[in-house]
Amino acid sequence: MGNALPLSADRPQQKTEEKPYALEEACTVWEGVLIDQKEESTSTDMPLGTAIHNIEITLGKGGQLARAAGAVAKLIAKEGKSATLKLPSGEVRLISKNCSATVGQVGNVGVNQKSLGRAGSKCWLGKRPVVRGVVMNPVDHPHGGGEGRAPIGRKKPVTPWGYPALGRRTRKRKKYSETLILRRRTKHLLRKIEKLNTKAEKEIIITWSRASTIIPTMIGHTIAIHNGREHLPVYIIDLMVGHKLGEFSPTINFRGHAKNDNRSRR
């Protein structure tokens, strides 16, 4: 028989780089809670501002939130039987205080910055090529068919099953967790505002979104809203909260009544 592999205790240990977000083994993070390998604690034992991951939604079901590489959530409030979390997507939601979570941040933060370099590297990860529907046959995809490079032949792109591919909301309106979500995922505009709040100087924020609702976080900022021709800068005050951005950047200018030939309404 060939030589047996050495035991894990006899194998030479590889040197690992120290990471700023990693916790030492068995170190006291706060009084009464010790952090060791694969150690979990409930949110009742954690102080506010704790960075956590692998969070339970349903008690006893196991971790479901903040499990991807580099993911980290933040415990921002505790009241009654619920704890308030800010998730990596920017969503703020409630969970039970008795749900477990792991302290710290998930490793491999820079995995999305890695360049695979070639198609074979993607194949090793189990990622198959994606075929466009427009090059398929009509029996395989609604976009398929036609002679040569034909367009999709529809007003809007659809999925292989005929549902709208862009803009359609897939979340149920009466989902059980609707009351637990205090704020939905942070959009691009809110991320700009949160970034400017950390700076002393406030720059003009340019946006194409007219349907966004003004929230208290926007007060004191100048937002340039597009009216179809140009971006009009609008300074946000407290009286605007609850209104849409498009209300303060009108797209129609009144230039007189239509019965007057010299004037028209555009």
TrEMBL record:
One Pfam short name: Ribosomal_S19
Region of interest called Disordered, as start-end residue ranges on this chain: 138-160
Signal peptide annotation: none
GO cellular component, one term: small ribosomal subunit
Membrane-traversing stretches: none
Large ribosomal subunit protein uL2 C-terminal domain: residues covered: 1-164
A single GO molecular function term of this UniProt record: transferase activity
GO biological process, one term: mitochondrial translation
Localisation per UniProt entry: Plastid
Domain of life of the native organism: Eukaryota
Assembly notes: Part of the 50S ribosomal subunit.
Assigned protein family: Belongs to the universal ribosomal protein uS19 family. Belongs to the universal ribosomal protein uL2 family.
Keyword terms, alphabetized: Plastid, Ribonucleoprotein, Ribosomal protein
Designated name of the protein: Small ribosomal subunit protein uS19c
